[in-house]
Q: What sequence folds into this?
């Protein structure tokens, strides 16, 4: 099995000891690590699932992962990269597309999710099938409707590229060929860096100087906490559960979570998505059926339909499905949701294709 | 006290060695030998041949041929009569009928002794199923489900006249209840023991009988079950595998 290189030099150990000794005081020595985006945990976030200890961020590995993320050679035909369907300005979702286009014009089965705060995710996709950020990319890579490539072929292409050879050797050391471990670890350096925590809401939540939300936005936040926060919970705005939100009466083509769990009680359940950057990740739902947030609120207002697994939190006291909103609450809610847009994330040049 | 101290120190050292299994530390084990495991694949009394023309027959009378036969063995343990155990660190092997060199391997750093019990997992422990990028035998391959993280513990593919599609495709895997197909077995060594000595490497010849995947606690008929990808049907076969797919043919002392 892989033995990670012993990177603990005396200065590192010394600064670790100092870090322990000095507790939470800001330390100038931490600055270099911060150069890699997403290398620190925002103070209003919980502890991550994939902490930096799992794959310590370095500048060279992050940049290598970024090159891989934007490299069309990861697809069989050289047509699409990860970044083709996960565009930064759209929160790394596929802007405006209900379903994404893979190689040879093939169309996928589900709406491409936003890629953000992946360090905090216990599992991935609308059905939670992939369980680890490092192995997750193997699914789109090999899916015939997406990149339709084999891991072996990707490694052949990477090993035939002198620049990649040099950069992988720089990150992982040694002179052996680039292998799947190195490839997946490097890619995870980039996907784990996609932390979005600088929205206007975040500045407000962290009580940063000068951070204010307007009166309608604050009322929207209150409406949100009361009527949406049961599922879109916490600072990540998802409880990571799988729920049936009443989209259809039956789910013959895509049963969602049940495809993984094989339980009938999971038919029609899909992952509750985070609402961070939700204003820019349209369209919405696992099949991208709603083009606007207004259409989403219309669905929760009067569009939900009954089925065996529809979520109990979406049922009102009188037994009816839905989340009724007054016209005013609706405006306030939309105003609040817009405060979750993180322009520094969406425009961070470090996360863009170079 | 001095004796106790050295025992305690030894314990600390071996604990440290197991924590840092990557360290090449030769000082810890007093006298270490090694053991070889050799796997022989059969279908009943016949040797297993891939892409053979003459079909094998299950206990229930179904005919089949085999094109692919691969499986994981992991977490190998050797037990002594006094109950002490040697647990191999980083113990993962992918056995492939198509690759002769995968069917024989040597376990290093086994403390000298007479071992009366051999235990291993058919498959991969649940932790490694979700542990991210791996190397060696666990490097992602077509023995890993990409859309639903987890290893395929056993893969047997082939053809059968009784199968409605003409093909058989048994992928056994999954680590979550109620469809956890991880099975740990201890094939009987009989009256023999595995005698590991410094300079003497015994070879345990293990026989894996593919017919046993389809008989035992659960009778599998290809007319009604010709394909599994984990799930409840894979549980049927995993239970059959646990019940006697692996037997110790003999132990050869060298």
A:
């Amino acid at each position: 099995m892989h033995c990670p290189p012993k990177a603990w030099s005396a200065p590192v150990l010394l600064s670790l000891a100092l870090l322990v000794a000095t507790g939470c005081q800001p330390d100038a020595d931490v600055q270099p690590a911060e150069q890699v985006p997403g290398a620190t945990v925002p103070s209003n976030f919980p502890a991550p699932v994939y902490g930096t200890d799992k794959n310590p961020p370095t500048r060279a590995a992050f940049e290598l992962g970024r090159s891989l993320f934007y490299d069309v050679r990861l697809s069989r035909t050289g047509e699409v990269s990860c970044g083709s369907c996960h565009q930064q300005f759209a929160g790394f979702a596929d802007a405006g597309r209900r379903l994404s286009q893979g190689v040879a014009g093939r169309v996928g089965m589900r709406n491409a999710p936003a890629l953000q705060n992946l360090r905090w995710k216990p599992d991935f996709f609308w059905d939670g099938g992939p369980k680890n950020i490092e192995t997750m990319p193997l699914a789109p890579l090999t899916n015939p409707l997406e990149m339709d490539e084999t891991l072996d072929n990707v490694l052949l292409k990477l090993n035939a590229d002198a620049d990649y050879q040099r950069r992988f050797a720089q990150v992982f050391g040694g002179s052996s060929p680039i292998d799947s471990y190195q490839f997946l670890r490097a890619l995870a350096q980039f996907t784990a860096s996609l932390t979005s925590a600088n929205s206007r809401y975040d500045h407000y939540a962290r009580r940063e100087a000068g951070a204010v939300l307007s009166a309608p936005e604050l009322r929207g936040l209150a409406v949100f906490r009361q009527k949406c926060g049961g599922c879109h919970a916490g600072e990540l705005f998802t409880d990571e559960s799988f729920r049936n939100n009443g989209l259809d009466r039956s789910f013959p083509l895509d049963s969602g979570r049940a495809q993984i769990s094989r339980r009938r009680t999971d038919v029609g359940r899909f992952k509750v998505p985070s609402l961070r950057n939700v204003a820019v990740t349209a369209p919405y739902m696992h099949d991208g059926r709603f083009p606007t947030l207004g259409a989403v609120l219309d669905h929760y207002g009067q569009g939900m339909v009954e089925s065996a697994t529809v979520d109990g939190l979406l049922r009102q006291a009188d037994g009816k499905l839905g989340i009724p909103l007054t016209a005013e609450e609706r405006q306030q809610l939309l105003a609040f949701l817009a405060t979750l847009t993180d322009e520094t994330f969406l425009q961070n040049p470090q996360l863009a294709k170079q | 006290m001095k004796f106790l101290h050295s025992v305690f120190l030894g314990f600390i050292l071996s604990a440290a060695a197991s924590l840092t299994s990557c360290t090449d530390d030769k000082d810890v084990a007093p006298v270490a030998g090694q053991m070889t495991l050799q796997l022989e694949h059969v279908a009943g009394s016949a040797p297993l041949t891939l892409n053979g023309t003459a079909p094998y027959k299950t206990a229930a009378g179904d005919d089949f041929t085999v094109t692919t036969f691969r499986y994981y063995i992991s977490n190998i343990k050797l037990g002594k009569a006094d109950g002490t155990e040697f647990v191999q660190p980083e113990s993962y092997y992918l056995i492939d009928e198509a690759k002769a060199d995968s069917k024989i391997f040597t376990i290093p750093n086994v403390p000298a002794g007479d071992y009366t019990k051999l235990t291993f997992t058919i498959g991969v422990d649940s932790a490694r199923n979700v542990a991210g990028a791996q190397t060696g035998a666990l490097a992602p391959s077509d023995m890993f489900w990409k859309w639903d993280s987890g290893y395929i513990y056993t893969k047997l593919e082939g053809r059968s006249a009784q199968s409605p599609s003409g093909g058989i495709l048994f992928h056994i895997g999954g680590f979550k209840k109620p469809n956890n197909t991880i099975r740990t077995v201890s094939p009987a060594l009989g009256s023999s023991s595995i005698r590991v000595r410094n300079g003497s490497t015994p070879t345990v010849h293990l026989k894996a009988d593919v017919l046993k995947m389809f008989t035992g606690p659960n009778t599998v008929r290809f007319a009604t079950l010709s394909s599994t990808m984990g799930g409840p049907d894979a549980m049927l076969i995993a239970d059959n595998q646990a019940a006697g797919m692996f037997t110790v043919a003999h132990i050869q002392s060298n």
